[in-house]
Amino acid sequence: MDINNLGFTTINLGHGSGGELTRNLLDKLIFSVFNNPFLNEKHDGAIVKIEGKIAISTDSFVITPIFFKGGNIGSLAVHGTVNDVAMCGAIPKYLSLAFIIEEGLDVGEFYNIIKSIKKAADESGVVIVTGDTKVVERGKGDKIFINTTGFGEVHPQANISVDHIKVGDKIIVNGFIAQHGMAIMSERKGLEFESDIESDSTNLNYLVKDLLDAFGDKIKLFRDPTRGGLGTVLHEIATDIELGVFLKEAYIPIEKQVAAACEMLGLDPMYVANEGVFIAIVDPSIENEVLALMRSHEKGKNASIIGEITDEHPNKVVLKSLIGGKRIVSPLVGEQLPRIC
Amino acid sequence: MKYLSEYRNLEETKKILDEIHKITTREWNIMEICGGQTHSLVKNGILELLPEKVRMIHGPGCPVCVTPLNLIDKAIELLEQGVIVCSFGDMIRVPGSKKSLLEAKALGGDLRILYSPIEAVSIAKENPDKEVVFFAVGFETTAPANALSVLHAEKEGISNYSILASHVLVPPAMEAILDDKFCTIDAFLGAGHVCAIMGTKEYYPLVEKYKIPTVITGFEPLDLVQGIYLAVKQLEAGKYKLENQYSRIVKEEGNIAAINVINKIFEIGNREWRGIGEIPNSGYVIKDAYRKYDAEAKFNISNIKVPENPNCIAGEILRGIKKPNECEQFGKACKPSNPLGAPMVSSEGACAAYYHFSTQ
């Protein structure tokens, strides 16, 4: 498609009016990129087939900057929701897709975003079946906000619930933490620093499916530590189950450059966002097999057993530091702020 | 990362910890001056690995914690006047008398979080019709960069830039602590990064006058246990001298270029310390020649005066008289989500460090 011949170079209020300009935007850009039988019906909603129990998750994406190393707001909007559905022990199938666009958005940028959405959806095996586009006045948004809702079929062997977690269960993470947050941080105005750190944004659903195929209900919980990072998610789990979480810092995988960037900015990687990381809490009898399966997978090759559930220190996450001391990992309060010196 | 893994080495750290256990025969109170050291001690779980007899007292070296409350209100007043206020990150959540900078931002203030004050000069250049103020707080460590921003503005002829400065100095604070009648400090771990700028010379007279062992110390776990070991060794031998554990960074003469920049813009003057009060000759004030870059002179804000929350014992915490968990409000009325005082806000504040990391 030649985006230079659309007849418009920026998105304006008219594109959200529901009239001819909206139709123009949909036909020339959105439908032509996604081009699937559900959207081609041009109806207000979609009729889809789903078997067994359904998992649903919704998420809104407001990231700044909208393009970053390793992805953009479009790919993120697919990965984020696909992963949330997968964390329920489900196989994601369908996505809804809603845009709130600030008038003045460059059509080229919008086109790149929807192409990324299409690519990410194809790679995740999900279909965009319905959507919405609204345009708001300049200053009422921040270029583009995206909401996606995902629908998936719960895996027949899955039985994911915090209620199944027991003392002795192992906590396994699939790979390097803190990549996404530091990639975004490196490009944020006022904090720019040069690095090759890329967002880890990716779909995790196939690895999750393989784990469920192999281990079924011996997997007690999946959780993806996005905002708030690993520390916040583990703290939530500890308080939910009223048991303790014990971690060993030496086993928490972190890439050297990311560790150095965190050190430089005074940020704790335990609270930095991830978009391609998940933890599995599993029965101790299968810890090594789970680890081996994860490591055989591209998206789990840096997997590591980072800790376990304990009845000591209930409701708390305690981390054994590299030098053998212990500290509490408390939940994040507000946004993590760079230190003065 | 070079210099990180080496100084977080389990075996090396354990060896020195074992030595500390071996040589300690009496109770010793050692104050680490810098908030970064407090943060590292608690985050790495070092406190519980020390002998019970070695008690670490947390010092006043957290820039956020000692910045006077009225200065935060002044920064907020500037935001509300339509000034672009630029600040280091952990200043923005500290409660002023009515609200924090973060809350003032939510109400429409143009607040920018920066790592470098030089960036604020660029913002001033890009916004010639706006006033831009950098909230220049900190110890001797941040003073050179803040002073340099004024020099940059001068060189580029930028007149819409100024700094709201509250720079404090470590040696006068150490003296104030030692002069306090409740003081129980037996030795100091000197603030490594402050000395990286200022050098070590000004500490010799202090060590002599108060006969207090002082070890200039770094921030990694191995640095800290080495610093503590050297301090205990002096104490056990009944000696007092200045030692430099952080010699890979700290030179006797300091960073001369940085000192020159400081001296160009600032001169020594009285400064108010939050929780402690005014200490004579304890900070930097902007020299008359650079007064036009002083936000307090440029804007009509110098009369803002506000009282502290009476339930906050930050003063006693900062002077090392009480530990955070000895405060009645700790973890109850005062939490990072609702701080009564600054030490609960900054990650370098002793209260926040205890709240977030301590298992004690």
TrEMBL record, chain A:
Database matches in Pfam families: AIRS, AIRS_C
Domain PurM-like C-terminal: 166-319
Superkingdom as given in the UniProt entry: Bacteria
Coiled coil (UniProt feature): none
GO biological process, one term: protein maturation
InterPro entries: HypE, PurM-like_C_dom, PurM-like_C_sf, PurM-like_N, PurM-like_N_sf
Domain PurM-like N-terminal: residue ranges: 43-154
Record-linked SUPFAM superfamilies: PurM C-terminal domain-like, PurM N-terminal domain-like
Protein family membership: Belongs to the HypE family.
Name of this protein: Hydrogenase expression/formation protein HypE
Species whose genome carries this gene: Lutibacter maritimus
Lineage: Bacteria, Pseudomonadati, Bacteroidota, Flavobacteriia, Flavobacteriales
UniProtKB/TrEMBL annotation, chain B:
Gene3D superfamilies associated with the record: 6.10.20.100, HypD, alpha/beta domain 2
A GO term for molecular function: carbon monoxide binding
One Pfam family of this chain: HypD
Classification via InterPro entries: Hyd_form_HypD, HypD_1, HypD_2_sf
Metal-binding keyword on record: yes
Keyword Metal-binding: yes
Domain of life, source organism: Bacteria
Keywords in alphabetical order: Iron, Metal-binding
One GO term of the biological process aspect: protein maturation
Family annotation (PANTHER family): HYDROGENASE MATURATION FACTOR HYPD (PTHR30149:SF0), HYDROGENASE PROTEIN ASSEMBLY PROTEIN HYPD (PTHR30149)
Similarity remark: Belongs to the HypD family.
Name of this chain's protein: Hydrogenase expression/formation protein HypD
Organism: Lutibacter maritimus
